[in-house]
Amino acid sequence: MWKAFGDFLALSDVSLDISEGEFICFLGPSGCGKTTLLRAIAGLDLQTKGTVHQGGKDVSNLPPSQRDFGIVFQSYALFPNLTIEKNIAFGLENTGRKKPEIDARVTELLILVGLEEQRKKYPAQLSGGQQQRIALARAIATNPGLLLLDEPLSALDAKVRIHLRHEIKELQRKLGVTTVMVTHDQEEALSMADRIVVINHGRIEQVGTPTEIYRDPSTLFVAGFIGDMNHFDAVVTAPERITCGNVELECAPHSVGQGARAIMAIRPEDVIPHGADADASGEVETQANTLDVQVTSMEFLGSYWRCHLAGENFGQGALIANFSMNAVRRLGLSEGKNMMIELPKSRVMVFDAAGS
Asked: Which residue range or ranges hold the ABC transporter domain (predicted)?
């Protein structure tokens, strides 16, 4: 699929298959094209080139009213002059159903989202989280084949957002409805999606499960956008060996040619801490991928400490490591302290100079 707005290409050669019952997240920075892709699926913005198929049917040129989907917007878009039950019933009334059937369906949905006692209230009388639940109930009222969520939780505060994302996922599993959600929140995508579609500059960078996206990113952009990532210039010296600064490291398998310039990357939580006397005490069995460093600064982040580490042989600025409370206490780490760290071979990733 391609989508252009004048001379601006918002989507470029996007191709994606979504299985029935899947929960898919479109993830990427602001302006990357994820909402444009969602709107193209809904028919709100027709694609410039390409096709959209749903359930084996080509819906590429159908208006939104003839496509089988429910949609929830970031702003909820509830009718302020209608009660909660009337908001949910609105779409059902346009299907020609009889009033007793509509009333029964509205009651069923209100029970499903836990707001049966609020049915006579107006949207302004509900909290943001409650309004979002009503918007969800309205979207699924007609049993659509596809549920589209456009950053549905971004307007809520952190605690409500965490609670609601669990509720939405449970609701989706219970209903079995195919769901596509747009978000720029990495944690939201990791916790909710069956698969994540990472989009950048109108192109799909990677599609995979949350674990695949996080542990095995296919590009440096994905590695840096999903979670935190250290990266340093390196040179490939052998199929599974690189030189970074004055240090030779073993690394995970990669496709960068020998002698080529590359980028070494490792996540802060993958750095293993050892004491300053680890080598002498036998704590470290091999010298492979071990470095002598100094703790230059520490940040307390609640469940762990973020430490900035520097070493003479490593160069290129600080290496960031996340150490648990127990590790910091056990090793007596503090600013200015010397220590030894280990970079596990399997977690030392290598990308080519372009970040692929």
From this structure: 2-226
Residue 103 has pLDDT above 70, yes or no: yes
Checking if the pLDDT of 238 tops 70, the result is yes
Could you tell me which of 206, 167, 171 has the C-alpha nearest to residue 25? Answer: 206
Q: What CATH number corresponds to the domain at position 19? A: 3.40.50.300
Kindly state whether residues 96 and 194 are assigned to the same domain.
yes
Q: Quick check: 329 and 234 in contact, CB under 8 A? A: no
pLDDT at 280: 47
| pTM > 0.90 | no
- Distance separating alpha carbons of residues 139 and 72, to the nearest angstrom: 6
Domain that holds residue 102: 3-222
Per DSSP bridges, beta strands 241-244 and 230-238 are: antiparallel
Name, in order, each residue with C-beta under 8 angstroms of 288's C-beta and a sequence gap of 6 or more: 249, 250, 345
pLDDT digits (tens, 9 = 90+) for 211-222: 999 999 999 999
Specify the pLDDT at position 271: 95
Contact between 321 and 339 (Cβ < 8 Å):
no
Same domain, 168 and 129: yes
DSSP letters along 25-58, please? EEE-STTSSHHHHHHHHHTSS--SBS--EETTEE
- Asked if pLDDT for residue 69 goes beyond 60, the answer is yes
Q: How far apart are the first and last CA of the chain?
A: 23
Q: How confident is the model at residue 28 (pLDDT cuts 50, 70, 90)?
A: very high
Take residue 118 and report the two structure tokens written for it: 């609020």
31: left (phi over 0), alpha (psi -120 to 50) or beta: left
154 in the Ramachandran plot: left (φ > 0), alpha (ψ -120 to 50) or beta? alpha
